Fold this protein.
Amino acid sequence: MSHPAPIVIVGTGLAGYSLVKELRKLDKETPVIMITADDGVSYSKPMLSTGFTKGKDADGLAQAETAAMSEQLNVTVRTFSTVTGIDTESRDLILGDERLRYGKLVLAWGADVIRLGIEGDGQEHIHSINDLVDYRAFRKALHGGKRVAIMGAGLIGCEFANDLRNGGYEVDVIAPDANVMPSLLPEAAAKAVQHELTELGARFHLGTVVDRVDRQEQGVRVTLGNGEVLEADLVVSAVGLRPRVELARAAGLNIGRGITVNRALETSAPDVFALGDCAEVDGQVLLYVLPLMASARALAKTLTGQRTEVRYGTMPIMIKTPCCPTAVCPPPKGAEGEWQVEQEGSDVKAVFKASSGDVLGFAVTGRFAVEKQALAKQVPPIHQ
Ligand code: FAD
């Protein structure tokens, strides 16, 4: 007797595991195979930028071993297996020489870190941290060191700056923009976060870039575009992420900024779905946890026969800079209106209002951070 082809999920990050958890609430039996290029250990990626603050190393941040996840969720997890292609005609996932037949295929393979072409012979001292394996390597490389240079002052760069200061490291942050987190925060809130991180001891070099990283006897010499030269034990590159789309593009799937899916998480190929950091859901690429959780709940229903569309509500982003608690709900791109700012020192309440008076977004720092829930109620959902 032939068995039905399984549901195959590529990726054991928060998107992949959240989907299986939701699926198993509805269907305990349908065979599920999970494929991952990494070790399949379950962890919460946002916690990677809190290790020192919480006193946890890479092992401490791991939540469950792969075998435990496999047993608990009744799924097969194939670790260290890299997908190299998809044949949507024959419904095969291609893993090197092997072909794996799928009944339904879910792409939850995340986003790649952007790597800048930096001059110099210190490349192996530049670390990007986008999973637990990267974090383990970073902590090992940091052992015995004291000084970290961070490229990028976005959410991840600022969170690592705070966490590394809490761990007692010297921190230099280098970024080309005039303010931290320029795509997330209005200027007043950005200045408040930068001020508090500076008070904590982080040094900012804004409006310039890293030109070279050269090896030294101890660590590296980091040369900036403005001529400054810094010394560090290692460099963290936190210059952004890009949804993984290449294999999907090669398979003929529609691609935008991510793998294009509709609100039912359906790609342009039959029975192929995508969610999480790799997906562009009805025009939205949101590299955060709340959107992928909402997607996982909807897709679990679809995979069990009840086609369901995801609807993103209002999704505030909490920035884990404990020296300056911050929450933001950015207004939609291109929204017309203006920021209205109330400020006392590093306590900022910035509300983005349309000319009608409607609240379209907000950013709150310091003592105003507690108002995030009340403000979020006033912001319209992402999916109307
Ligand atoms: P990933 O976790 O990247 O999982 C991708 C999976 O696909 C992995 O298992 C990988 O091995 C596998 N894979 C990739 N390519 C292949 C292939 N070819 N073959 C087989 N397997 C493959 N979001 C928030 O909402 N709040 C926060 O506070 C927050 N903080 C963050 C802090 C840091 C330091 C970082 C890096 C991110 C943070 N984020 C935060 C973002 C959030 O963590 C991500 O949006 C989320 O974890 C993405 O999950 P994912 O499952 O889509 O991707």
Q: What stands out?
A: The chain is about 25% helix and 30% strand. Residues 289-303 form the longest helix (15 residues). The mean pLDDT is 96.
